[in-house]
Amino acid sequence: MQHYNIRELRLAKGWSQEQLATIAGLSTRTIQRIENGHQASLETLGAIAAALGMQVCDLTRQAPEQTAWSAAELAARRRVENEGLLLSKLLRFVILSLILLAINGITQPQYWWSLWAIGAIGLGLVMRAARTLVLRDALQRWQTRRLAQKLKQL
């Protein structure tokens, strides 16, 4: 959602919403909606920017704390998604292991060949769990530190 600093710019000029609406050729209700956070069309923003004597891009404001929070939220979402994928892999591993043990018990109960397959698949699952739960973003942190070291050397 886009945030506009129209209210601050309007108050800096000492204008009321009605005055800005009249100069921009818009309704007062449109100005009220935009100032309350509703989305505005490009034509409306262009009219307001012209009335205020500036460019359309000057009407938008970016909240840096919101951007930082969004990055943290995205990282948390990615971690939760990876943990969910790990749990689904664990569930598939358990089901596949039970199926392999059942097939092995029916066909060749004297030699438990299914344990080799279960062990190999389990090893892959342990590696995935280590990457997801323990290492997480260790490689990315290392790359960031290494890049900082290289940039200091320049």
UniProtKB/TrEMBL annotation:
Keywords: DNA-binding, Membrane, Transcription, Transcription regulation, Transmembrane, Transmembrane helix
Gene3D superfamilies, per database record: lambda repressor-like DNA-binding domains (1.10.260.40)
SMART domains from the UniProt entry: HTH_XRE
An example molecular function term from Gene Ontology annotations: DNA binding
InterPro entries tied to this protein: 2TM_dom, Cro/C1-type_HTH, Lambda_DNA-bd_dom_sf, TransReg_Diox_bact_type
SUPFAM superfamilies: lambda repressor-like DNA-binding domains
One protein family per Pfam: 2TM
Residue intervals passing through the bilayer: 86-106, 112-130
Alphabetical list of CDD domains matching this protein: HTH_XRE (cd00093)
Domain HTH cro/C1-type positions: 6-59
UniProt KW Cytoplasm keyword: no
Entry GO CC: cytosol
Protein name: DNA-binding protein
Organism: Gibbsiella quercinecans
